[in-house]
Amino acid sequence: MSTGWYLAVSAIVFAIGAAGVATRRNPLLVLVCLELMLNAGNLAIVAFARMHGSTEGHVFALVVMVVAAAEVAVGLGVVVALYRNRVPVDVDELRELHG
Amino acid sequence: MDEILFFVAGIAAIVAAAGTVFLRNPFYAVLSLVVHLLSLSMLFLLLYAQFVAVVQVMVYVGAVMVLYVFVNAYVGGGSEPEGGGGPSLRMFSYAIAITLIVTIGIAVLGTGLQAIDGSGPDDIPASFGSPGEIGKLLLTKFLLPFEAASFLLLVAAIGAVVLARRRRGVLPGEERMVAALDLLAPTGTGSMREGVGAINPTPGGFSARITPSTGAGTLPASDDRTGDDSEGGSR
């Protein structure tokens, strides 16, 4: 398969993730949709690595995964803290972050 | 064979991504993301990225998704409410997404790069995408990003613990345990518990200075919350 097909899949998934970030109201699902966007970027990186025949792109993809894991850990910590503080878990209602 | 696998995995990835965005039940949305990640790892395998594919399954499907499912079960909430921003705002978001697809599509597929139409070199070395090759790159050329990534993970782990920790003081069982330990501990050991005034309270100590200035100090605030917590536990 040519690289262009992978890039097309990546672009579609990225846009779907962006639509999810814009429309979802549960912060947990906003994080899930961010995950979609990060993975679309990863797919493009790996496709370009294959196009160049060089393994270095895979290192980029692994670093993106690390960043995504860190984002998930902190983001879910914020969601749990919101739930503990009896704040409605809804991005429309969230206006302040102070504990 | 390559094409069939690509279309199966690619269509599954797109459908599962759409399911993640459109399913109302958060639990189903997270499960749909699991399907999406599995089909992405299949695409990675088609691109000869074995190590990245395995890491994708282990890290995402194995660890991150378990975290999502547990936090989802903890927060609960059920389906998210309808309405809110209104249908026009929602349509506007979808219009932005479609514009994004068109823009990226033009940018990527209209570049005129001839390599995009090919599938890359056919005579790739056997070490391409192998763990050994990636490990060599991580410890030589990309040593600084590697160390920065490990430091980032450490900071994120500490941050998650600090954000999600329990702020309600000690439980009854823990109190008894601490009291037994206090008998053994000499006064003035400079421990952290002593610093916040939990044991050996001193008149001019840390807690005495902190509590009046902030109004609701750490310990009174946690007392207020104990009533709510029993209610939360039964949920």
- Radius of gyration of chain A in whole Å, from Cα? 17 Å
Mean pLDDT, all residues of chain A: 86
- Radius of gyration of chain B using CA atoms only: 27 Å
Report the span from N to C terminus of chain B.
51 Å
How large a portion of the residues of chain B is in β-strands, by DSSP E?
under 5%
Low-confidence stretches of chain A: none
What would the principal axes of the Cα set say about the shape of chain A? elongated
What percent of residues of chain A adopt helix (DSSP H or I)?
over 70%
**What structural category characterises the helix and strand content of chain B?**
mainly alpha
Note the run of SSEs of chain B as H and E: HHHHHHHHHH
Describe this structure in words.
The complex is a heterodimer of chains A (99) and B (235). Chain A has one domain: Helix Hairpins (Orthogonal Bundle), CATH 1.10.287. Chain A is 77% helix and 0% strand. Chain A is built from 3 helices and no strands. Chain A has helices spanning 3-23, 27-52, 56-84. The termini of chain A are far apart. The mean pLDDT of chain A is 86. Chain B has 2 domains: 2-120, NADH-ubiquinone/plastoquinone oxidoreductase chain 6, subunit NuoJ (Four Helix Bundle (Hemerythrin (Met), subunit A)), CATH 1.20.120; 172-233, no CATH class. The radius of gyration of chain B is 27 Å and the shape is extended. The two termini of chain B are 51 Å apart. At the A-B interface, helix 1, helix 2 and helix 3 of A face helix 1, helix 2, helix 3, helix 4 and helix 5 of B.
